[in-house]
Design a protein that fits this description.
five-stranded mixed beta sheet, 14 helices, binds copper (II) ion
Amino acid sequence: MTNIRNLIFSSKSYAILLTLFSVATSADWNALNMTQGVTEISKEVYELHMLIFWICVVIGLLVFGVLFYSMYAHTKKKNPIPATFHESTKIELVWTIIPFLILIAMAVPASKTLQNIYDVEAGDINIQVVGYQWHWQYRYLEDDISFFSYLMTDLDEIYNKVPKGENYLQEVDEMVLVPIGKKIRFLITANDVIHSWWIPAFAIKQDAIPGFINTAWTVIDEPGVYRGKCTELCGKNHAFMPIVVKAVEQEEYDLWVSEKRSAAIALAELTEEDWTKEELIERGEALYAKNCAACHQTNGQGLPPIFPSLVGSDIVLNNKDEQIKILMEGVQGSAMASFSYLSEVEMASVITYTRQSWGNAQKGDGEIVIPKDIVEYKQSKI
Ligand SMILES: [Cu+2]
């Protein structure tokens, strides 16, 4: 006992306490705290978090205060004969009712904020967000804009061959553009497994579930670039599907929309065009190298039995419809994924390339696939 006393009251322990105190006061507490974000909701969530944090601090101090006081005031030395009382209905009522009231007091502001978050009314701009393994797709429902957003970080940075950039693993090839001061509603879903769309600055964290549509909304006051990521473990590249939203002035947004739309129209015109075999093959070669060669090899012979050869394959030789279907839908339970995100022109080119290369044209029906065939296939699915 005296040993412990000596320790508690020794000058050494005061030195330790003093050090702890100075570390505590100099630490950058804000860096450890939840961030406030940039929207009304995110600030509300922050206030709520602080309120409940301080309630917990007070409760903690009270409970541990009583605990330590009792340990000190009722040592065996001071109280050799312990009290033997049992149960006290009064005290039990008090320690049930008080926490109950505290919980109600916390639930009132929390429910108000939740209600606000779960507003599902349409926004000024409605964007469908679709999670894929492992990237996001965005569809602007009013403006008919649709694009995929992929991680842009260089592989060399990931493998430590070059220094990591400022936005390491938080940069994408196409940002989600939105105007400031407008209500943006996100309709969040997924195409394969469960993902979750999370942007801390907006206090949005919403599961993306195949077959369900969850909603979230925000109004952003300040222009800026806001970053987030998928926050539901969704497979091996879960860490590589970041989210980047850029909030801009209305004029800049309008300009972007019109550029995106004219690009879409240009693509539609390309689709309508009459394509020659040579043009398709030329486009298809590069697409094949980028999208297919990893498995089916540059010479088309694949690595059987895992990756089938496309040379002399019955489907590639004579069954154009089946080949379109495989490319559009993928093959369930195999490494052959759907390539439906390719444009109609790209899809037709890569299929034609495989049908015309490596002597396939001579052995099979030699037919080509044109963009209109892909459009027809898509329409037959609606
Ligand atoms: Cu994911």
